[in-house]
Amino acid sequence: MSPKPFRKALVLGIDGLDPGLCRRLLAAGRLPHLARLASGGRFVSLATSNPAQSPVAWTSLATGTNPGRHGIFDFIVRAPGTYLPRLSLTRPGPGGAPLPAYDCETFFEVAAKAGLPTTAVRWPVSYPPAFGGATVLSGLGAPDVKGRLGNYVQYAEEADGQGGRGRFVPVRFVDGKATLAVEGPMAVVAGRKTPAVVPLALARQDGRLDYTLGGQSGSLGPGQWSPYLSVRFETGQGSPVAGVTRLWLGRLEPLELYLGPIQIDPAAPCLPIAAPAGYAAELTDALGGPYSTLGMPEETKGLTDGVMTDEAFLALCDDVTREREAMLDFELGRFREGLLSVVFDTSDRIQHCFWRLADQTHPLYDAAEAARLGPVIDDHLARMDAVVGKVIDAAGDDTALFVCSDHGFCSYTRSISLNAWLVRQGYMKLKPHDSTDSGELFRHVDWSATRAFALGFGSVCLNVAGREQQGIVPLGEADALAGELAARLTALADGPASPIAAVHRREALYSGPLAGEAPDLIVGCRPPYRLAWTSVIGGTGGEVFADNRQKWSGDHCVDASFVPGSLFSNLPLAAADGVSQTRLAATVCRSLGLPPAAHMDDDLLSSS
Q1: pTM recorded for the entire structure
Q2: HSE toward the beta carbon, residue 526, CA cutoff 13 A
């Protein structure tokens, strides 16, 4: 017989919650609320998606099925009809407008279709919102006011513009004052497109920087963040575009001033980040002001590019987490029945950027810095445990509670460039070019003589004739070539180390109507190796192996067997370590007394 259904189900997502790290912190007594949850229910490791990437894993959790059915195979995939990489967080629609990344039914839609109140706060890959009938605030994938993933601007008196991914703008003060132009979305001026701008006025006095932006004035000392600042861009195309941003002063003289991405103003969204449309503004009222709406608001690029300090980044992470805690508090206060999910993902960003201080073998390990900052990863997970405690206390006996993660984590100390290896082994041919040019976006590739190419965080595709735009590999030879590449990559050595743990054939991993869209091979790195950033976006130059000397020092884009996720529940689930994450969706449905969607894998509820 089926267990009696619950009035409520609550799914709390904690991105990157690693089961090994949980066990260590549980043993140390630092996660008392998760310990309480496990003792009364269940704690198991979850076999994550392959590849172990957030868009793939969170979508597998929501849909209860493998990528062969939902169609998300990597963070970065091929643009339709080309070799160019594109993000998988949305699909290109008519006129370039983004469409939801997938249309496979989720447990949110199952609940909403049954008439239950359903809310999903910051579930990844939910822009534009597509969980029919659910209340949604988009998570990972939500854009800035330009429709992009967001980037910083660094204003500096000594800007050299070298090596950063943001935009570096030189500043010249006259009599202690300077006026700059902050760029927003494109405007139409006299029939021509040009970035809309608002002025940013600066003045140095009394050891501080005074600023005025969008009619709001304030003063910053070195190392300080501004509050959210509202800006309005006149684009000549109807109503002004509303955005919010923040300033951080790195140095007063010579000036180093960081401007964060111009995020969508939740009080007046210019793009569909919420459903119903007024939900983003409702949360603004509940929180008492603006909040971060960007899919990844923790500005890791500013930190890894060296324009932001560790302390500034951690302060930003603290603010983002407090906002998410406030959203959870608001929703818990009115949660009477149905389904509620809130995802916390700052845990992922902190692990990405601070494994260098937890792993003494990392090239960037600094004992003094580790002692000064403390165990930032452990401390943040202890904060997440306190959130779990709040949820346990608020949920009550009529609630099925699930705390889950998409994947675990490991150290990242060494990079592999798959495309550089393919070039050296003769599988990829390049046109004559400057040897110092890393060749992102495959710009130097001679497709007429290339048999295989790599993109994303582990995808290898064969240049098959009749399938690819300029394919040359006969279909009848593709299987043998895939086997040859898999064998050679698995045997690849970096000195005494074996950096590739496994190379998976797509037919061994995926089933479903979209399995044919998967890459031919999925390369699983052995920690602490990971694919090089340049190779991820189609770069073909550089060495095959290189030390990772970036602050982005922890990762999960390795073979899925090394980075399982976690599942805690107050229910005595019929589950053991290594159970598939795809079984959560049906479990959530059954806990509410609802039949799962036909494509969902079996639930984890005991039949007795």
Answers
A1: 0.96
A2: 13
